Amino acid sequence: MELSLRRLRTLREVARRGGVNAAAGTLHFSPSAVSQQLEALAAEVGAPVLERVGRGVRLTEVGRVLVEHAEVLLAAEQQACAAVEGARQSLSARLTVGVFPAAAAALVPAVVDDLAARHPGITVDSVEADTEDVATDVRHGHLDLALLLDYPDAPEPWRTDLTVVPLGRDQIHLAAPAGTAHRPGVELGALADEDWILSGPDTYWGRAVRTACRRAGFDPRVRHRADSSATAAAMVAAGLGVTLVSDLGRIFCPPAGVDVVPLARPLSRTIVAVHLPHTGERPTARAVLEAFGHAAVTRGLAPAT
After folding, report:
1. Which residues 6+ apart lie within 8 Å of 29 measured at CB?
2. Residue 269: helix, strand or coil by DSSP?
3. d(CA 217, CA 76)
4. Residue 132 pLDDT > 70, yes or no?
5. Distant-in-sequence, close-in-space partners of 248: CB < 8 Å, separation ≥ 6
6. Where are the alpha helices (DSSP H) in 28-126?
7. Phi then psi for 98, rounded to 5 degrees?
8. Considering only CA atoms, which of 18, 57, 53 is closest in space to residue 39?
9. Residue 38 phi/psi, 5° resolution?
10. pLDDT tens track for 188-242
11. Which SS3 state, helix, strand or coil, does residue 263 take?
12. Could you give the C-alpha distances from 186 to 73, 216, 243, in angstroms and in order?
């Protein structure tokens, strides 16, 4: 009996997502392709791995055993990759990194240039990923690494099965229309009567800003909801309201029309890289993490604490 690791990943995803359709969306396959993978796995082991229950499916006993052992086998695969890379005379691999928009615009170009100069055998493919799902994509093996944001005002519960590597602190400031009366050292509470341009409360950024404002004694009056930092900055430049912007996010501010004003009590967020524990043993992954660390320093981010 030979087991396909790809099919084991598919079965594990079905088990975690609770069904074929949900797993198909995460795996970027069609439901029929997922079903074909599972039928092929059942043929490999000589027994069904799923059984129908009403309008849904559940794991058979054989399926449960396979999912239990899949974690061990997939972890061993990661260890084998790390060992092979360690035995090579030069670093060579293609890694896929999930990034949020500001990191894609401000850090990835510097990382690609750094690796081209120091480790030309390493190729980085970046994917602009939804920060709400990116940790899951790393855990499931869809991404080798991912960059995430950790907000002190809205901490996210990091799963214990991921390794978290702080890269730098990203300071947050007021972004107001050019000519604003707000001066450096403005209190966040002084912005209570402003019209705000802000992403929704279902996003990391939206939750963090709302939490900070509430601690300052007010709920922001959101007149324009914009999930894109570039859109929010353009609307500020057009005089439609204020928002907050980080040092990294300033890359989206237009060359004119926006004044970036430091706050009296600085807000910050920590940029972190996350990966599976065994990924950290891969020399190529360590080289990519080092390149992101260099890029963060070059962009002027403060050391992470």
Report:
1. 10, 37
2. strand
3. 51
4. no
5. 102, 103, 106, 107, 170, 271, 299, 301
6. 31-45, 61-87, 101-106, 108-118
7. -85, 130
8. 57
9. -70, -35
10. 999 999 999 999 998 888 988 999 999 999 999 999 999 999 999 999 999 999 9
11. strand
12. 55, 12, 13
Closest CA to 213 of 154, 261, 128: 154
For 238-287, how does the pLDDT look when each residue is reduced to its tens digit (9 = 90+)? 999 999 999 999 999 999 999 999 999 988 999 999 998 888 888 899 99
Residue 257 tokens read as 């029309």
- pLDDT per residue over 57-77, tens digit each? 787 888 788 877 777 777 777
Which amino acid is present at 37?
Answer: Q
Residue owning tokens 């992101």: 292
| Residues with Cβ within 8 Å of residue 228, at least 6 apart in sequence | 101
Asked whether 295 and 107 are in contact (CB, 8 A), the reply is: yes
pLDDT of residue 32: 82
- 280 Cα distance to chain centroid: 17
User: Domains (ranges, CATH) in the chain?
Assistant: 5-85 (1.10.10.10), 169-268 (3.40.190.10)
* Residue in this structure with the two tokens 């439901």, named with its chain if needed: 31
- Mean residue pLDDT of the chain comes to 86
- Cβ–Cβ < 8 Å for 86, 117: no
Residue type, 100: F
Question: Do 140 and 26 contact (CB within 8 A), yes or no?
Answer: yes
Bridge partners (DSSP) listed for residue 145: 97
Indicate the residue type of 115.
L
pLDDT in tens, 117-129: 999 999 999 998 7
Q: What is the pTM for the complete model shown? A: 0.74
Residue 176 backbone phi and psi in degrees, to 5: -130, 160
Cα maximum dimension of the chain: 74
